[in-house]
Backbone:
C-alpha cells in the first residue's frame, strides 16, 4: 500500500536520509504490532515536514530569521506580527480572540478586582485564572509564531511516534473542528461566573418571570421557577464535564491496572479478572448503577465513584489483549533477562506501548459517561437540585413540554454538542494513533 | 451444534450465580437493612426485631447468602415491600412488555441501520452518504431520553400523530381486532424508535464499512462481469458476507436495549421492567430492584448466547464441536 521508494528519493533534506526511528537503543520502539507506527515506511510516507510550519498558509521562513519589528508588534498587539508577514487569516483570528478576551476582561473588571481582594467564592478564582490563561495563551501563540517559529532552524532529526500521530491528528479537519468546539465549551464552563447572564438559581419574581419564551433578555427562556435557562446550561456544564472527566479517569486507570495485571501474569490471575469482567459486563450499565445508587443517598461523589467503578471493564479487556501480545515480544524477554521487577516491566516497558488504544477508549468513554450521568440525573438519581445539571434540566422540561419546549431542548442540545465533540476527538485519536483500527 | 448450545448454556449458569452474588454484595454493602423501610416512631423496636427474624436477617452471612442464591435460582425473589405481593408476580406482568418493546426496537434498529448503511455503501462519497454519516454521528451521540422527549414534542403534541404514553388507548377493549393491532402499533412506534435510533446509527456505520470491504472483493467483480443486476450483486452476493459481523451485533445491542428501556419506559409510561425498577428505587423497594436487575442480566446473558449461536449458524467457516 505504501510505496517506499519515491519517498526516499524526494523526501527533501529533512526526512529521507535520516533513520526514521530516533531511539534505536530503546527496545520498546521495536514492537511491530503495537504502538504508533508500524513500519518505517509509514514514517517516511509523511508529507513535507516541519520546515515551514504546520499550517498550509505558512509563509516560507525568511532567510534573515527574526524580524524585530514584527516581534514588537506581536508583543504589543497579538496578531499584528502575522499581518506584517502577510499571514492575514491567522493574524485576524488571533486579533479576534485577543479582542474577545480583552473585552470580557474589561466587562468584568469589577468582578476581577473583587476576586483578587478575596471576597469571591472559588469558582470566581477559577474563572479569573482561566481568563488570564486564555489571554496568555493567545498572546503566547502570537509571540511564538513570530519570534520562534521563523527563527527555528529546520529540523534535521527524525520525529517521535507521538509527533507523527499529532500531525495526523491535526490534518483531520473534523477533529480540529471538534477540538475547537471542545475548547470553547471548556472555556465557557470555566469562565461561567463571568459569562452567565444571571445567577443559575435566582428565582426573582416567579409569577412574572417563569416560562418566558426565548427572547433577547433570556436567550434560552426561563424555567418553571423563573430561572434563566442559559445560565443554568452554562453552570450545568460543570457537572457533566467534570463528572465525565473524573469518572473516566478512575475507570480507565482501574481498567488499565486490572487488564495489565491480568495480561502480564496470566494463569489464575487472568482467569479471575476476566470472569469478574464477564460478570459485570452482564449487567446493562444503567441497571447496575441504579441497583447501587438505589441503596445510597445520591450525591456527586457517589455518582463519580459509581460511574468510575462500573466503567472499567471494556478498558481492561483491551489492555489485557495488548499485554498478552506484548508479553511474548523480545523486548520484554530482554527486560526479564536484565532482571527487572514485574512492576517496572509493566509500567515502564509494556504500558507505554499500549497507550494508543487506552487513549482512544478514554476519549470515547468520556462522551459515553456524560450520557450516562445525564441519564441518571434525568431519572432524579444524579446530582440533586437545585444544582443545575443537563440531565435534570431535561427532566424538569419534560413536565412542561407543551408550553415551554425550550426548557428541555437547550440542555439536550448541549449534551449532544459535547458528546459529538468527544466522539469526534475519539475517532480522530483512533485514526491518528492506530490507522489499522480505522473502521 | 446442539452440544455447542448445551455447553454455552452450562457456562451461563456460573455466570448467573456470580450475578446473584454481586447483587448480594451490593445489597449488604449498603448501610442499614431492609427493615429500615419500616423505621418509624410508631413501630415497636420489638416488631422490627421480629421482622428481622422473619426475613432471616439475624442469620449469619453465609446462611443468608446461600438462601439468596438458591431462592434466586428457583425464581423466588421474595415479596415487594411497597406492593405487598410476590416480586415474581410484578415481573410477570412487566417482562413481556419489555420484551415486546425491545424486539420491535430491534427490528427498527436492524432494518433502519442496514438500509441506511447499504445506501451509503452503494453510493459511497455521494451527498446522501456524507449526509447520512453526519446525521448518524449525531444520533449516535444523542441521549436517548432527550430524543424521546423531542419525538413526543413533535409527533404527539405538535402534529398529534402518535400517542405519547401507555401501551394502548383507553377504549382499547372496545376495538375490533385490526383496530386493536393498529392501536398497539401506534403506541409502540415512538418508544421503539426512540430506543433504537442510537444503535441504528451504530449499525449503519458497521454495515457501511462491512459492505464496502466486501464490494471491493474479486467475486463481486465476477458477479458484475457475469452481467448480474446491481440489485442481485448487492443483496444476493455482497450482503451475505457483509452480514456476518453484523449478526454478532445482534447480541451486543441487547444490553443497550435493556439499559435504554429503563429511560424510555419511564418517559412513555410503558409498563415494563425499566419502569418497575425506577419506581421501586424511589420506593426503596430493594427486593424488586435486585430481582429486576438480576433479570436484566439474565436477558443480556441470553442475548450473548443467541449471538454466539447465530454467528455459528451464519458463518459456515466457524465450527463448534
Residues:
Amino acid at each position: 500500500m505504501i510505496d517506499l521508494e519515491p519517498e526516499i528519493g524526494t523526501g527533501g533534506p529533512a526526512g529521507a536520509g535520516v533513520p526514521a526511528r530516533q531511539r534505536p537503543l530503546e527496545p520498546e520502539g521495536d514492537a511491530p504490532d503495537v504502538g504508533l507506527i508500524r513500519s518505517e515506511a509509514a514514517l517516511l510516507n509523511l508529507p513535507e515536514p516541519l520546515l515551514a510550519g504546520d499550517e498550509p498558509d505558512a509563509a516560507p521562513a525568511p532567510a534573515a530569521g527574526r524580524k524585530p519589528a514584527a516581534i514588537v508588534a506581536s508583543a504589543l498587539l497579538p496578531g499584528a506580527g502575522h499581518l506584517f508577514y502577510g499571514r492575514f487569516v491567522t493574524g485576524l483570528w488571533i486579533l479576534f480572540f485577543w479582542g474577545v478576551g480583552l473585552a470580557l476582561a474589561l466587562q468584568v473588571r469589577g468582578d476581577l478586582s473583587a476576586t483578587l481582594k478575596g471576597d469571591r467564592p472559588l469558582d470566581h478564582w477559577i474563572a479569573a485564572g482561566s481568563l488570564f490563561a486564555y489571554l496568555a495563551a493567545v498572546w503566547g501563540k502570537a509571540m511564538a509564531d513570530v519570534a520562534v517559529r521563523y527563527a527555528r532552524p529546520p529540523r534535521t532529526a527524525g520525529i517521535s511516534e507521538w509527533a507523527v500521530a499529532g500531525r495526523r491528528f491535526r490534518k483531520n479537519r473534523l477533529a480540529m473542528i471538534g477540538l475547537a468546539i471542545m475548547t470553547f465549551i471548556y472555556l465557557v464552563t470555566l469562565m461561567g461566573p463571568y459569562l452567565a447572564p444571571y445567577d443559575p438559581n435566582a428565582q426573582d419574581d416567579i409569577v412574572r418571570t417563569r416560562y418566558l419564551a426565548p427572547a433577547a433578555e433570556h436567550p434560552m427562556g426561563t424555567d418553571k421557577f423563573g430561572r434563566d435557562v442559559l445560565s443554568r446550561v452554562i453552570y450545568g456544564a460543570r457537572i457533566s464535564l467534570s463528572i465525565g472527566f473524573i469518572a473516566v479517569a478512575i475507570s480507565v486507570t482501574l481498567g488499565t491496572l486490572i487488564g495489565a495485571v491480568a495480561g502480564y501474569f496470566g494463569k489464575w490471575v487472568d482467569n479471575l479478572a476476566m470472569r469478574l469482567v464477564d460478570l459485570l459486563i452482564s449487567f446493562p450499565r444503567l441497571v447496575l448503577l441504579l441497583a447501587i445508587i438505589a441503596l445510597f443517598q445520591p450525591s456527586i461523589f457517589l455518582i463519580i465513584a459509581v460511574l468510575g467503578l462500573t466503567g472499567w471493564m471494556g478498558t481492561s479487556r483491551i489492555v489485557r489483549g495488548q499485554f498478552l501480545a506484548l508479553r511474548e515480544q523480545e523486548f520484554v524477554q530482554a527486560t526479564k533477562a536484565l532482571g527487572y521487577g514485574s512492576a517496572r516491566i509493566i509500567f515502564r516497558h509494556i504500558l507505554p506501548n499500549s497507550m494508543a488504544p487506552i487513549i482512544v477508549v478514554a476519549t470515547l468513554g468520556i462522551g459515553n459517561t456524560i450520557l450516562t450521568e445525564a441519564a441518571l440525573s434525568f431519572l432524579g438519581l444524579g446530582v440533586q437540585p437545585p444544582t443545575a445539571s443537563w440531565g435534570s434540566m431535561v427532566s424538569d422540561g419534560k413536565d412542561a413540554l407543551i408550553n415551554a419546549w425550550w426548557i428541555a431542548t437547550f440542555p439536550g442540545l448541549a449534551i449532544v454538542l459535547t458528546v459529538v465533540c468527544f466522539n469526534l476527538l475519539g475517532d480522530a485519536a483512533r485514526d491518528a494513533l492506530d490507522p489499522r483500527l480505522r473502521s | 451444534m446442539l452440544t455447542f448450545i448445551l455447553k454455552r448454556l452450562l457456562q451461563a449458569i456460573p455466570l448467573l450465580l456470580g450475578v446473584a452474588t454481586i447483587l448480594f454484595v451490593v445489597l449488604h454493602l449498603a448501610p442499614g437493612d431492609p427493615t429500615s423501610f419500616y423505621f418509624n416512631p410508631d413501630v415497636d423496636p420489638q416488631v422490627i426485631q421480629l421482622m428481622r427474624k422473619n426475613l432471616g436477617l439475624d442469620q449469619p452471612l453465609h446462611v443468608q447468602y446461600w438462601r439468596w442464591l438458591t431462592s434466586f435460582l428457583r425464581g423466588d425473589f421474595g415479596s415487594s415491600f411497597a406492593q405487598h405481593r410476590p416480586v415474581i408476580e410484578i415481573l410477570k406482568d412487566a417482562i413481556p412488555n419489555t420484551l415486546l418493546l425491545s424486539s420491535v426496537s430491534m427490528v427498527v434498529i436492524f432494518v433502519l441501520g442496514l438500509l441506511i448503511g447499504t445506501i451509503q455503501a452503494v453510493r459511497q462519497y455521494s451527498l446522501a452518504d456524507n449526509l447520512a454519516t453526519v446525521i448518524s454521528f449525531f444520533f449516535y451521540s444523542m441521549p436517548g431520553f432527550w430524543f424521546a422527549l423531542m419525538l413526543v414534542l413533535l409527533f404527539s403534541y405538535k402534529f398529534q400523530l402518535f400517542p405519547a404514553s401507555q401501551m394502548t388507548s383507553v377504549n382499547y377493549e372496545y376495538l375490533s381486532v385490526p383496530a386493536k393491532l393498529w392501536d398497539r402499533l401506534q403506541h409502540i412506534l415512538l418508544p421503539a424508535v426512540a430506543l433504537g435510533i442510537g444503535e441504528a446509527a451504530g449499525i449503519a456505520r458497521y454495515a457501511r464499512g462491512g459492505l464496502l470491504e466486501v464490494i471491493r472483493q474479486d467475486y463481486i467483480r465476477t458477479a458484475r462481469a457475469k452481467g448480474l443486476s446491481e440489485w442481485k450483486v448487492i443483496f444476493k452476493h455482497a450482503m451475505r458476507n457483509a452480514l456476518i459481523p453484523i449478526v454478532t451485533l445482534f447480541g451486543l445491542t441487547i444490553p443497550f436495549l435493556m439499559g435504554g428501556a429503563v429511560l424510555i419506559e419511564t418517559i412513555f409510561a410503558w409498563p415494563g421492567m425499566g419502569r418497575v425498577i425506577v419506581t421501586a428505587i424511589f420506593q426503596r423497594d430493594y427486593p424488586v430492584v435486585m430481582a429486576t436487575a438480576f433479570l436484566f442480566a439474565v436477558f443480556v446473558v441470553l442475548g450473548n448466547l443467541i449471538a454466539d449461536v447465530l454467528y455459528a449458524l451464519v458463518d459456515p467457516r466457524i465450527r463448534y464441536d
